[in-house]
């Protein structure tokens, strides 16, 4: 289980001021190995660098172990979720697992990259096969101009129409090259955000963006322009950040499917999951939290443009149903048990010959703790990042507890289950099993965030809030009927404000 | 440029921007809209029945004053047929409560409603000032909250009334949802979203007709209606989880005004996802099951204090400690340092720090069952109710001081 690359004990200077208290003067021994001097404060314990890295590594390996098992068992059951998405190509060899890592170039996903590499090398050193193949994809978000937080920022220069390389992209290129050199075993790729335009996992028509649909052939420049326009027209920074996050996930899932991966791995730390819990709650997406926070199969919808001959077009409802096909993708967060500050420290310690942190971009342009510009321009996500950065400092277990308890919420489809009265929702709430793509007759996914729609909740909310509710503003809008229940409450908010 | 006209009546000048959705309306339309929205809440949740006697928990603050005013208006406009009574609790906080009670007394005259005042001293033998003198400022809100919940019920019983309405607004509910997320208390989160807590099976039913009303709109309503209310906040301060949740809510509202409602929506939906909780948030779904906890005990998870209502001063620190102990225990490692740490934590918790509610965070939600307190006979899910537990501690302290 140990990290194979002996961590460099020679870089106390690189230690973060957060987790670490450089008490080099008083050389108390590490509480775990009792031999090396303890130099880091890890959850109230004085430990040495090596034991700290082992600690983080074990947290990751535990999750990877679960994932490996999950993939093995589902592939023996023909891996239905995965299988469905592979219409043209034969099924993959069950023996070789293939994962896709979403790399934001922040500390957490970089730490995951290093840990996955350690894991592979360790297995190889034992004379075993590599436990999995890994593809690393970075989604370059330069086009999400004006959005902040969550790996956003940057932005196209005024004159830079389309695919002119921004400063940021140049930096990314260099960094990815460095990482590719460091981890030659893995494949690295960049995907540009504008590639989301035309992806059929988004219900562009439902969003009133007909010209985004089926434009896979459109040139990159046009896509970038379209996307820029969409972002410019969004009502707030929160909306922009929100869509940026959703589009990034769409792209990662698309890439994972394209390259026949069994699972998408995200570097989200405990802290990130806690942030997500609160920010999604604040954005009205409480219903989908069990899907967002937990590991497991996420439904992946496919919306085909209605111009294509759709089968027996009956009244609206049936018509809609035939339009959405669904498959699934396994999504895992192997660092869910590590705090962000721990991962930051980890990147400053781990990696040979230099710590990975030194390969990453300058932090100020990439991480989210930049100086406040104006409170109005903050996004909800950003507010939560700042908030949890503080809480994490003094109350790390509280942060961990948020993610853990949220994970206990049940996954309900379509809010169904209470429909047959008596509030006995357990019966209706279907757990997503290994073959989560089945049994989705009841289930309809949001055209934007791909999370299950909460039909029941929508109705009840409307009843409670009455005529002045947000949807009624839409009725006046256009084609409200069609609009309705094609995207979730939270996405509605992001698009319309 | 001509002044913008009201989006509703299109005749008057729009001199109000609604905090909730930034709609520009005139004063008259705003007041009507506000009342109609409360009316909608009342009707859609079936809050009252004709002839029902209802006690309004009145503190003299903006929320309960607006609640009293709106209920009076709606009761007359829509013939609810309610008999409305003002019920006030005198916590015994000099410079705060004595003044606000004067306000309530004036309200009673203005709204032509009977008023009942119940004091902590007569109920418990302690005023809040005395409590603070004994235990200090930290954590006193726990006492106040627990005492008030029972006090309202007892007051209602004295009046033979089975329904108490409180002025909790959308901000309060949103705050409670975030707070319980932070505490990892999903059971309480689920309950806090209910508009009604307690039902026919429990002695006194609680409801919050202003559940969907923004605090800012309540202030506006009070201002434009020229209501007589008392605007000083409680002199004992909020802390930890609630304080932190409140700060978050304010920040979120600034960024996106709908955020408060969006949090309510999330909270209601999440309540349906909590294993073992009953699903309905609106208490209108016919034969509802007995609620998981009683109004008296839990108040739907909303802090009893309209303006502050916080718990222990070191609530976050205490919870952090507890969680770490749990983690340590889970790891099943005999680890000297952890043991000593746990020991220290236990020590410091007994030495005068506030008795926290037991921490059920890492366990699945437990359903509470209703019984009666062995000491005071009041309904409680424990053998001894929270108020009696707290009193026991206080009385011990008092005895010690006297010695």
From TrEMBL, chain A:
GO biological process terms, semicolon-separated: protein urmylation; tRNA wobble position uridine thiolation
Q: Would the keyword Cytoplasm turn up in this protein's UniProt record?
A: yes
Q: In which pathway does it act?
A: tRNA modification; 5-methoxycarbonylmethyl-2-thiouridine-tRNA biosynthesis
Is Lipid metabolism among this UniProt entry's keywords?
Answer: no
The UniProt entry, under InterPro entries, shows: CTU2 (IPR019407), Rossmann-like_a/b/a_fold (IPR014729)
Which locations, inside or outside the cell, does it occupy?
A: Cytoplasm
Sorted keywords for this record are:
Cytoplasm, tRNA processing
Q: Could you give a GO molecular-function term held by this entry? A: tRNA binding
Q: Which GO terms describe its cellular component?
A: cytosol
Predominant place of localization: cytoplasm
Q: Where is the signal peptide?
A: none
Please give the residue ranges the record annotates as the region Disordered.
Answer: 1-20, 148-167, 300-322, 420-441
Q: Where is the composition biased (Basic and acidic residues)?
A: 158-167
The UniProt family comment states: Belongs to the CTU2/NCS2 family.
* Record's function text: Plays a central role in 2-thiolation of mcm(5)S(2)U at tRNA wobble positions of tRNA(Lys), tRNA(Glu) and tRNA(Gln). May act by forming a heterodimer with NCS6 that ligates sulfur from thiocarboxylated URM1 onto the uridine of tRNAs at wobble position. Prior mcm(5) tRNA modification by the elongator complex is required for 2-thiolation. May also be involved in protein urmylation.
Q: Which HAMAP family match?
A: CTU2 (MF_03054)
Q: What is this protein called?
A: Cytoplasmic tRNA 2-thiolation protein 2
High-level lineage: Eukaryota, Fungi, Dikarya, Ascomycota, Pezizomycotina
TrEMBL record, chain B:
Molecular-function GO terms, alphabetical: ATP binding; nucleotidyltransferase activity; tRNA binding
Locations of Low complexity compositional bias? 280-291
Tell me which domain of life the UniProt entry assigns to the organism this sequence originates from. Answer: Eukaryota
Instruction: Give, as in the UniProt entry, the pathway in which the protein acts.
Output: tRNA modification; 5-methoxycarbonylmethyl-2-thiouridine-tRNA biosynthesis
Residues that hold ATP according to the record: 57-59, 63, 89, 167, 172
tRNA(Ile)-lysidine/2-thiocytidine synthase N-terminal domain span = 54-233
* Sequence segments annotated as region (Disordered): 279-300, 344-363
Main location per the UniProt record: cytoplasm
* Presence of the UniProt keyword ATP-binding in the record: yes
The family note in this entry says: Belongs to the TtcA family. CTU1/NCS6/ATPBD3 subfamily.
Q: What is this protein called?
A: Cytoplasmic tRNA 2-thiolation protein 1
Q: Which organism is it from?
A: Neurospora crassa (strain ATCC 24698 / 74-OR23-1A / CBS 708.71 / DSM 1257 / FGSC 987)
């Amino acid at each position: 289980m140990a990290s194979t690359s002996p961590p460099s004990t020679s870089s106390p200077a690189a230690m973060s001021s957060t987790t670490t208290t450089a008490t080099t003067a008083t050389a108390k021994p590490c509480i775990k190995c009792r031999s090396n001097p303890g130099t880091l404060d890890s959850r109230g314990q004085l430990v040495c660098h090596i034991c700290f890295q082992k600690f983080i590594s074990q947290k990751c390996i535990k999750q990877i172990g679960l994932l490996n098992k999950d993939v093995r068992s589902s592939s023996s059951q023909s891996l239905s979720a995965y299988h469905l998405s592979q219409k043209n190509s034969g099924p993959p060899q069950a023996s070789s697992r293939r994962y896709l890592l979403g790399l934001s170039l922040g500390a957490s996903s970089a730490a995951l990259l290093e840990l996955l590499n350690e894991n592979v090398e360790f297995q190889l050193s034992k004379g075993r096969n590599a436990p999995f193949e890994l593809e690393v994809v970075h989604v370059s978000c330069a086009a999400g101009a004006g959005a902040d937080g969550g790996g956003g920022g940057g932005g196209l220069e005024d004159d830079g129409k389309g695919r002119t390389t921004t400063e940021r992209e140049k930096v990314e290129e260099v960094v990815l090259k460095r990482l590719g050199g460091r981890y030659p075993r893995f494949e690295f790729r960049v995907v540009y955000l504008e590639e989301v335009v035309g992806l059929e996992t988004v219900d562009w028509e439902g969003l009133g963006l007909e010209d985004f649909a089926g434009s896979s052939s459109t040139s990159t420049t046009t896509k970038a322009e379209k996307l820029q326009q969409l972002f410019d027209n969004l009502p707030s920074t929160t909306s922009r950040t929100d869509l940026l996050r959703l589009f990034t996930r769409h792209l990662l899932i698309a890439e994972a499917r394209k390259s026949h991966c069994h699972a998408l791995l995200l570097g989200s730390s405990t802290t990130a999951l806690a942030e997500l819990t609160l920010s999604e709650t604040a954005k009205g997406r409480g219903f989908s939290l069990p899907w967002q926070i937990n590991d497991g199969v996420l439904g992946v919808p496919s919306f085909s443009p209605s111009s294509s001959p759709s089968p027996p077009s009956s009244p609206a409802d049936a018509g809609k149903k035939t339009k959405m096909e669904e498959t699934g993708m396994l999504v895992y967060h192997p660092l869910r048990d590590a705090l962000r500050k721990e991962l930051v420290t980890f990147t400053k310690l781990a990696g040979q010959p230099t710590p990975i942190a030194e390969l990453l971009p300058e932090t100020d342009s990439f991480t989210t703790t930049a100086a406040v510009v104006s409170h109005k321009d903050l996004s909800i996500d950003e507010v939560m990042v700042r908030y949890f950065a503080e809480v994490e400092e003094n109350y790390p277990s509280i942060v961990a507890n948020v993610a853990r308890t949220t994970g206990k919420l049940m996954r309900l489809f379509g809010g169904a289950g209470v429909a047959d009265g008596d509030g006995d929702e357990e019966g209706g709430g279907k757990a997503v099993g290994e073959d989560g793509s089945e049994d989705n007759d009841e289930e309809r996914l949001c055209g934007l965030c791909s999370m299950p729609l909460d039909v029941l909740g929508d109705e009840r909310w409307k009843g409670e809030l009455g005529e002045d509710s947000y949807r009624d503003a839409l009725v006046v809008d256009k084609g409200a009927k069609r609009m309705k229940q094609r995207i979730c409450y939270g996405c509605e908010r992001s698009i319309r404000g | 440029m001509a002044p913008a006209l009201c989006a509703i009546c299109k005749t008057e000048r729009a001199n109000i921007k609604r905090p909730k959705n930034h709609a520009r309306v005139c004063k008259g339309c705003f007041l009507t809209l506000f009342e109609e929205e409360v009316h909608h809440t009342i009707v859609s949740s079936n809050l009252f029945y004709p002839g029902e006697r209802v006690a309004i928990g009145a503190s003299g603050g903006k929320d309960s004053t607006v609640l009293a005013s709106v209920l009076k208006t709606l009761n007359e406009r829509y013939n609810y047929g309610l008999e409305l009574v003002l019920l006030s609790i005198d916590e015994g906080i000099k410079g705060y409560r004595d003044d606000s009670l004067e306000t309530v007394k004036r309200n009673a005259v203005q709204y032509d409603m009977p008023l009942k005042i119940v004091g902590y001293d007569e109920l418990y033998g302690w005023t809040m000032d005395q409590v603070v003198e004994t235990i200090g400022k930290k954590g006193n809100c726990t006492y106040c909250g627990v005492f008030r919940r029972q006090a309202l019920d007892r007051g209602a019983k004295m009046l033979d009334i089975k329904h108490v309405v409180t002025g909790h607004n959308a901000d309060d509910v949103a705050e409670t949802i975030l707070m319980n997320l932070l505490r990892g208390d999903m059971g309480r989160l689920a309950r806090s979203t209910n508009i009604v807590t307690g039902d026919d099976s429990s002695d006194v039913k609680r409801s919050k007709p202003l559940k969907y009303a923004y605090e800012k709109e309540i202030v506006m309503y009070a201002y434009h209606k020229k209501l007589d209310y008392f605007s000083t906040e409680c002199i004992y301060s909020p802390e930890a989880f609630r304080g932190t949740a409140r700060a978050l809510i304010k920040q979120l509202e600034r960024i996106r005004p709908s955020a408060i409602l969006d949090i309510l929506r999330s909270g209601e939906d999440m309540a349906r996802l909590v294993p073992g909780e009953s699903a309905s948030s609106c208490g209108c779904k016919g034969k509802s099951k007995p609620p998981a906890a009683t109004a008296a005990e839990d108040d739907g998870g909303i802090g009893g204090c309209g303006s502050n209502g916080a718990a222990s001063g070191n609530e976050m620190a205490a919870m952090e400690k507890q969680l770490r102990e749990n983690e340590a225990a889970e790891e099943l490692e005999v680890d000297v340092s952890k043991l000593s740490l746990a020991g220290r934590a236990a020590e410091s918790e007994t030495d005068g720090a506030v008795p926290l509610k037991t921490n059920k965070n890492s366990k699945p939600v437990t359903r509470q069952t209703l019984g009666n307190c062995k000491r005071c006979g009041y309904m409680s899910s424990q053998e001894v109710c929270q108020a009696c537990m707290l009193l026991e501690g206080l009385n011990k302290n008092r005895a010690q001081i006297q010695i």
